[in-house]
Amino acid sequence: MTQLPPDIHPPPLPGLMLALVRAWHRQAQPWWRGVTTSWSWGLSPTAAQLAATDWWLHWASGAAGMQNWMNAATSSASAPGIPLLADATRATSDSRFAHPAWQQWPFNTMKEQYAQWSERLMAQARLEGMQPHHQQLMAFMTRQWIDMASPANWPWSNPEIGMKDVETLGMSRLKGMQLWLADLQALLRHTLSRRGDPEHAAPMSSPALPPLSHIVGRDVATTPGNVVMRNHLVELIQYAPSTPSVVSEPLLIVPSCIMKYYILDLSPHNSMVRYLRDQGFTVFMLSWRNPDEHDRELGMDDYLRQGLIDSMAAIRRLTGAARVHSLGYCLGGTFLAMAACLLAGVRREPDTRIKLDDLPDLASMTLLAAQTDFSEPGDLGVFIDPDQLHHLQHDMQQRGFLSGRQMAAAFQLLNAQDLIWARQTRRYLLGEEDKGMDLMSWNADATRLPARMHSEYLHELFLRNALAAGHARALGERLALIDIHCPMLVVGTEKDHVSPWKSVYKITLLTDTDTTFILASGGHNAGIVSEPGHPHRRHAWGHRPQGQPWLAPDHWLADATHCEGSWWPAMADWLRQHSDGEVAARVVAMRDTLAPAPGEYVKVRHAD
In percent, how much of the chain has pLDDT > 70? Predict the structure, then answer.
């Protein structure tokens, strides 16, 4: 290519053309980004197109590519001599096909054909030679199409819908139409409330905010307590004791800032906070502030200092305890592990910015569904690569935060079969309103993340895997997981799409301390909210003393002790084993009370 001499420059754009370009970026580009984001299921259009191109090139270059595709498209599950594949066999236990009518012709044939078609399409999504991340993206996008095409989603192929129409004389379909119109009206109210401005967020009282079936402080988050410390980022709640004596070490719980804290304080019967309090622990809980556009510059250092360090100092000041138990859930567990590394490094090389005399030691650390090695992040990895982050950063720079709706949509897509399509079938085609479950209400209470913190979190932990590699830094200190020496209890869940249990288990390879690992049944949320008495619960546990050889996850599972029931009693027993006796119950003094639990931060909702 011929280059221009250094003293010759391209002429500037004419004034009118420059104005047109700026108008495009200001008006049309947000619309175009919205369109492309919609058809790519929230993925970066560039990332989706790269994955599709990688797939197409490998498919087209394969000698059997066309033949395999035709076989997948035309083969019939009912054809003689073609056995049912694995997915077709599992279709009999698929909740979408639980109605007895699915066992009758022609619906049983449609169900089995759908299962075979699904399996073959999924096999075609991961072609040999493709980049692993592109394989994951194509499998994810293919799964979205497969879930959408399920015969259970359509009135002409779902026998339950027709039978319900007959039984109710068409009233179920009328009810479904009313629910659809109500949802459409709420969506229009939300759209109009934003006035076309992506930076505008409706206030708490806006009618665009859908009502929650469970009210915070009335139905959920009802364990008695008081806010005893507040800064710009967190409120610290101390719960009132229910026993005359308590374990000498207080327990600090660090929930994820991606979620409202009351996932661990739902209804009284399934509240982990209430359970631990009734077991004789002095429980403290962090309640993260739901950020707005003014918090765009809050970073991970702020979350560690204002969230964890300030809270630990407050506990030391309020209780006088020299040691504390700590428990972190999801991203809160990642932050807790980082804080443990930070404090270990500072104790080795004192830092004047952190006053160690004001902080208690960690008596133990419990991590619930929390990753520290992000090399295998599971299904969530489809949303994380350089193109995706560039796409996200553009949106966050405009607003100053990642919206709760964006996060909620991403988590819904990870389980679209249940959270999107099955719900729409029940609601719009069967006329069944959503059940008022506390967990579902909590799930609808979305939170935001500041632009800087979210960007640092994804770049440093997911893309660079800096914490596991020993390259992460916090408050100027290098973090090393091997510096953690307190006993650890690590909990993973079998069906976790967000933090796969084998990824959570990797901390046992990166540390050398007394460690107990528990694998619980259920998923990322339901596996953690697993109160005693909950039916069909089970868990496995295994203990590795410090200095013992490491076991690969499959070998650990083979050697583990398998138990029926909730794992919460095992956690309470483990915490007591690492405690130094009991003291008189700690009652919050009036002078230390800022507000009654659940505080104010947890009640802040934004309509985006």
Answer: 83
CA-closest candidate to residue 444, choices 264, 165, 214, 254: 214
Spell out the residues 6+ positions from residue 293 whose beta carbon is closer than 8 angstroms to its own. Answer: 199, 201, 399, 400, 401
| Residues 474 and 525 placed together within one structural domain of the fold | yes
Do 154 and 175 fall into the same domain? no
For position 212, what pLDDT does the model report?
80
Give a yes or no: residue 400 inside a domain: no
Domain count of the fold of the chain? 3
CB-based contact 237:598 (threshold 8 Å)? yes
What is the extent of the structural domain holding 424?
168-212+405-444
Q: Pick the closest to residue 494 from 429, 562, 423 (CA basis).
A: 562
Q: Is 320 inside any structural domain?
A: yes
Angle, helices 386-399 vs 29-39, to 10°: value is 140
This prediction's pTM: 0.83
288 shares its domain with 413: no
Mean pLDDT of 493-503: 93
Q: Are 276 and 349 within one domain?
A: yes
pLDDT digits (tens, 9 = 90+) for 87-145: 333 444 577 898 899 999 999 999 999 999 898 889 888 888 898 888 888 988 899 89
What are the catalytic residues? Answer: 330
Higher pLDDT, 394 or 426: 426
The torsion angles phi and psi of 284, rounded to 5 degrees, stand at -115, 140
Strands 515-520 and 538-544: antiparallel
Same structural domain, 91 and 181: no
pLDDT of residue 8: 44
d(CA 33, CA 45): 8
Same domain assignment for residues 298 and 347: yes
In terms of phi and psi (left: phi > 0; alpha: psi -120 to 50; beta: otherwise), the region of 440 is alpha
Locus of tokens 């947890």: 602
Nearest to 339 by CA among 365, 310, 369, 308: 308
**What is the CB neighbour count within 10 angstroms for residue 89?**
12
pLDDT digits (tens, 9 = 90+) for 345-387: 877 666 656 777 789 999 999 999 999 999 888 777 787 777 7
Q: Is 237 in the same domain as 324?
A: yes
| Within-domain flag for 280 | yes
